# Entry
Amino acid sequence: MAYIPHSSDEEREMLSSVGAKIFEDLYSHIDKTLLFEGELNLPEPKSELEISETFKDLANKNRQLKIFAGAGAYDRYIPAAIDHIVERGEFLTSYTPYQPEVSQGTLTAIFEYQTVIAELTGMDVANASMYDGASALAEAVLMARAVKGKGDTVVLTRTIHPLYREVVKTYLYGYRDKIEEIPYTEEGITDLNLLEDTLKNKEVHALAVQYTNFFGFVEPLKEIGELAQRYDVPLVVVADPIALAVLKPPAEFGADIVVGEGQQLGTPLYFGGPYLGFFATRQRYVRKMPGRLVGMAEDVEGRRAFTLVLQTREQHIRRERATSNICSNQNLIALRALLYIALLGKEGLREVAKLSISKARYLYKNLLQKGWKNPFNNDRFLWEFPIFHPEAGDRRKKLLKEGFMFGIPLERFYPELKNTLLVAVTEKRTKGEIDKLLSLL
# Structure
């Protein structure tokens, strides 16, 4: 709707209704020394054409960085068809599909999204999505707490994304739960001995681990799953969706809940959001799952139809019985994920993973030859890895000026890992870009 300014008579009428004569009377109670005096230094008014050209000039000053960094958000290739489809009006402007008789398209898309997430994770059922990976993990910990029904301790491995762990702590603040963080070994993976000691000696109601972990290494999920089952603790796995194209699904190792960040599935970096949290679990726990679930049913004429079949949030049921206060799902971003998986298919997803792995190995091998070092006694990573150099920070700053975003400093999250960068290589990075990066180093 076009903006139509108020007329002078309308302004006088509004001011009069609140007992004011002029506009300045509205802030006459404020100390005059705090008010700005004089003329604002504003640019001359411009036409629509001039404004358009101004912004084009500004946009041309932006640098297109070659991104060799990840830490939960990755620069991947996105098929052009995705943007074309999600920008259709019925998807872009639609709201919550409460009325199935007018929302079959949206409900069908959500149902198919749930299906592919369940397949990818190996779990029985997936919900209609969460806000992001961090909040999905926090919701999963609360759900595991409800599944266990007793205990006062949550166990998080220190190799889980540091910001995800902070979100979990925020969610648990009101519960007064104890949070135990299991250190990592010299291999950069969870210390299984310390984990078992904690599970044995504490009243644990949730155990969470990341697969692959924050450093990019593959955690020993088989052994962790066996420990969780031995001590009867619900296991939550934060999974990388692209990694699941080449790794065994968490379900095979006894995971009770699998969550993760779905940004890699067809969503741009977007300066940090909006993103997508996926959430999957076992059938027997479905009534404790947060969010909403779309199911397949029949209409009165016996035709296949889709509808919301489970909504265990406080807005729909008694508050004391609600599983979560999450109010919606990421419909549009979930649709992007569905389209990405559908367009690439199983082999396409594997190819994305394999290309990323081979390019990361190429960069890693050449960095070692240039004197960089792996701070851990482990090279079992996929496309993300930590790398140390005594001048890592300076090298990173110089590369940024050349248009390369090379890694993320790990010292911010792990003070003991000074001069260490977390580097990621996706299928989007070319050999030419990698060789240029190496030559600049």
About this structure: The chain has two domains: 66-77+346-440, 80-340.
